[in-house]
Amino acid sequence: MSTATMGVPTPNARRHASFVAFIIISSLVFHRTLSALISYSLHDDSSSHIILIPLVAFFLLYVERQAVFAINGMGIVPGICIALGGLILYWLANRGPFPQEGNWPLSLETLSVILMWLGGFLLCYGFVAFRAGAFPLLFLLLMVPLPDVVLDRAIHALREGSTEVAYLIFQLVGTPVLRHGFLLSVPGVTIEVAKECSSIRSSIALFILCLLVAHLYLRTSWKMFLLVFLSLPLSVIKNGIRIATLTLLSIHVDPGFLTGRLHHAGGFVFFLAALVILWPVFLWLEQSDKPRRSENPAM
Asked: I need a labelling partner for 230 at 20 to 30 A (CA). Which of 19, 193, 274, 282 fits?
């Protein structure tokens, strides 16, 4: 009779229990940071994805558990060093030279907690397991909220690009248009591509989706990079199409399109349009790629 059937915990079971205990204890110790992070995610459109990131990351670890936990050891020195680095960063976040405004403390504190989790994983499973599970583990870094200065620059770039795309669309369809900064004047209406129109939320969602698809379905590094990179200009293009479409509908059909449901809740429609544009590119990349190794049977 095997030791597992006799009720003796296997080495992997003990490692799993240790890692889960480490996550729970560290979450309780740093509950203030995690509570602030959850609140920020629920109230800020640019960070609504944050609460889903750990769920996706740990689900990926579970799905890929055969490869990740095939060879386990103990990374005591690197694990302790990374976890200790996280503790030092946490202390510096509020007492060091970093700015105390613009969301910097929350960003740095979140990063420090993630570093401690990564250190805990290394400590429990070793470097080979860490390398095998690098994607879901590093995926946790998407939990870090962007400092305001970085977020503002990203939103500004999205506004610039979306305004330019909408301007080009008006010219292509023969609609007279004048542009002044983020203002577009067409017959009968002048619109402003405001911060709320930057589509930062759907742009981040598209980036994360492409990241996951590239990891799950592609093997070649440059093809993975290409798919993820294409999410950036595509975010600008689909938002420019959205702005131009709503404006043209308000001119030729009903002025209410600029303030109606499609304007406030129709982002999903244009998100799907972006996926339709991206779909043939993904199919080409997948079909030209080498087939993935067959998955091992579940534990």
From this structure: 193
| Block residue for tokens 């909220």 | 145
User: Of 246, 253, 256, whose CA–CA distance to 197 is shortest?
Assistant: 246
Separation between Cα atoms, residue 41 and residue 46, nearest integer Å? 8
Structure tokens, 287: 């079909």
Cα–Cα distance for residue pair 105/98, rounded to 1 Å: 8
Q: Are 249 and 270 in contact (CB under 8 A)?
A: no
* Alpha helix positions (H), the chain: 11-29, 31-43, 53-63, 65-68, 76-95, 104-125, 127-132, 134-139, 148-172, 200-217, 221-252, 261-265, 267-288
DSSP string, 148-162: HHHHHHHHHHHHHHH
Q: What is the DSSP letter of 10?
A: P
Q: What is the pLDDT of residues 49-68, one digit of tens each?
A: 999 999 999 999 999 988 88
CA nearest to 233, candidates 266, 210, 262, 263: 210
Are 116 and 26 in contact, with CB atoms under 8 Å apart? yes
Radius of gyration of the chain, Cα coordinates, nearest whole angstrom: 23
Q: Mind giving me the DSSP string for 187-234?
A: TTEEEE--GGGS-HHHHHHHHHHHHHHHHHH--SHHHHHHHHHHHHHH
Total residue count of the chain as it appears in this document: 299
Place of tokens 């993935």: 292
- pTM, two decimals, is 0.85
Please state at what angle helix 267-288 crosses helix 221-252, rounded to 10 degrees: 150
